[in-house]
Design a protein that fits this description.
The complex is a heterodimer of chains A (333) and B (211). Chain A has twelve helices and no strands. Chain A is mainly α and 333 residues long. Chain B has nine helices and no strands. Helices cover 66% and strands 0% of the residues of chain B. The chains are: A mainly alpha (333), B mainly alpha (211). At the A-B interface, α4 and α5 of A face α2 and α3 of B.
């Protein structure tokens, strides 16, 4: 019994060691997003609270904590409160399988990539529950849009993951990184990387695919009725999901914790830092896209997902597998 | 081992209670939420017996796709609003009870056949045509039998699903009049001399433009 509790405590310690940095970096990433967005538009962005405005997100969080939580009278109260909790929880539990280095991962499970895919497909529920429980038109429309969008783009992300898995021969995320020791998958699978990046934008409801919260049409989409800490939880969950998508992108295509070239000044930097650099690089791309690209129309969004991305990535699966078969490069023999 | 059985009972209890709640709860959307909870706890049970691949596929397919469609349909049809007229206020004389009884009896007998087989011939479990190896991961072992021994069944089920999908599209598709489709080629190949028309407008009369 004693050993059981000691195992439990080490696990809790490990989980806190992972989650606290994730939450802090989510706060920082919001600041970075606003800063990049401002610089593109020749503004300064948040620069008042703390050095370079670094504490802006903390100040915002403090404001949200002290705001009143309003629960609409005609809402379905239990589901209304549950929705932000679901979003936040699902955004955080996915980090358990992301490998930050060799043997530096919370849960090194065999079906790591399937776990990530399953959790991200559950992410729809936070949004649907929030939109439905608010019992109001704008949130409901936003939730329907968002759910349709996420389900559509998940299909193409699934097919892209199949492309990577064909080259690896394992569903374990550490194996996926180790398979890229000689060549990052971004080089042979470059079109898939581009499609993954765009699908990740759509999956996380980022601009130019932020139709679920298109302010001109739907106020704030599924979050319209939320206030105070519950709104902040939706918002934290959203940014944690964006960060997670960047992490998945760097594990699948940019070689995870591996350094770009295996020579002295580069391989002296520890693996976790390389992963963080890659996540930051992808995130700054996300922010630049937000600052430069106008919003898509809904039918264009659906057309892009189903008629362009899905056929193309299916074609690429056939291409990859025939290439691997012809040159006898199939893994796992 | 104690922790294992504790978790087993927790998940089974949640699964059974939420399965009952699916049929009992009056709000249809709540029913779907309980169905999702049921799926999740069953996939947890799958993972506990070591079938991690099946558990994850259960989550991805049933929770991530099928239940979302259920929710869509239920929300769109506004069944929740019609609950008074459908469920509580009007007793339909029990016309659905015989059908329900028949279905549940069939399922009950099927279960008896399967479990009875295990009970009276325990070596039935060991006489499977394929050896299940514990060394390779179960993703790999499923792949090994699915794409070799059972390739025909796999392909046939895929074809059936494809036919069902095409059938659903054919049944629901209808040509709508007056839809203005966007043609990128047309938009891009438009030039100034065909797009811009200079018209001499007379004072106080206006002009007529054919759109």
């Amino acid at each position: 019994m004693d050993s059981y509790f000691s195992i439990l405590f080490t696990e809790v310690y490990k989980i806190l060691f992972l989650l606290v940095p994730v939450l802090v970096s989510v706060a920082m990433i919001v600041w970075l997003d606003r800063r990049v967005w401002a610089f593109v538009q020749k503004r300064r962005g948040p620069n008042v609270v703390g050095p370079f405005g670094l504490f802006q997100s903390l100040a915002d969080a403090l404001k949200y904590i002290f705001k009143e939580i309003i629960i609409p009278a005609s809402s379905n109260k239990f589901v209304f409160v549950l929705a932000p909790v679901v979003t936040m929880t699902l955004a955080l539990i996915s980090w358990a399988v992301i490998p930050f280095g060799e043997d530096f991962v919370l849960a090194d499970i065999n079906v790591g990539i399937l776990y990530l895919f399953a959790v991200s497909s559950l992410g729809v529920y936070g949004i649907i529950m929030g939109g439905w429980a608010s019992n109001s038109k704008y949130p409901f429309l936003g939730a329907i849009r968002s759910a349709a969008q996420m389900v559509s783009y998940e299909v193409s992300i699934g097919v892209i993951i199949i492309n990577v898995l064909l080259c690896v021969g394992s569903l374990n995320l550490s194996d996926i990184v180790m398979a890229q020791q000689n060549l990052w998958f971004v080089i042979p699978l470059f079109p898939m990387f581009v499609i993954f990046f765009i699908s990740a934008l759509a999956e996380t409801n980022r601009p130019p695919f932020d139709l679920p919260e298109a302010e001109a049409e739907l106020v704030a989409g599924y979050q319209t009725e939320y206030s105070g800490m519950m709104y902040a939880m939706f918002w934290l969950g959203e940014y944690a999901n964006i960060l997670l998508m960047c992490a998945i992108g760097s594990v699948l295509f940019l070689g995870g914790w591996l350094s770009p070239i295996d020579i002295f000044p580069f391989n002296a930097i520890p693996g976790p830092f390389w992963l963080i650099f890659k996540i930051l690089f992808l995130f700054i791309l996300f922010a630049l896209v937000k600052a430069t690209v106008p919003r898509y129309r809904y039918d264009q969004l659906m057309k892009l997902g189903w008629k362009i991305f899905l056929p193309f990535s299916l074609f690429y699966v056939v291409l990859t597998s025939s290439f691997l078969l012809y040159f006898d490069l199939l893994p796992g023999k | 081992m104690i922790a294992h059985s504790v978790f087993f009972y927790i998940f089974s209890l949640i699964a059974i209670v939420s399965a009952v709640m699916v049929t009992v709860s009056k709000n249809t959307v709540h029913s779907v939420f309980f169905l999702i909870l049921d799926f999740i706890s069953i996939s947890c049970l799958f993972i506990m017996i070591g079938a991690e691949f099946l558990g994850m596929i259960m989550l991805i397919v049933y929770v991530g796709a099928v239940a979302v469609l259920f929710l869509f349909v239920v929300m769109m049809l506004n069944v929740a609003e019609q609950k008074g007229q459908w469920f509580s206020s009007r007793w339909d004389g029990g016309t659905h009870i015989p059908v329900g009884l028949l279905v549940s009896l069939i399922i009950f007998f099927e279960l008896i056949i399967v479990i009875g087989g295990w009970k009276y011939k325990p070596d039935l479990l060991n006489s499977l045509s394929i050896n299940i190896s514990t060394e390779v991961t179960n993703t790999r072992s499923i792949g090994n039998v699915l794409y070799t021994d059972y390739i025909l069944l796999f392909q046939i089920s895929g074809m059936i699903l494809l036919v069902a999908m095409i059938g659903a599209i054919v049944l629901t598709y209808r040509e709508r009049a007056g839809v203005k489709r966007q043609s990128y080629v047309k938009q891009i190949s438009r030039e100034r001399n065909e797009g811009v028309d200079l018209i001499e407008a007379e004072k106080n009369k206006g002009v007529k433009i054919d759109a």
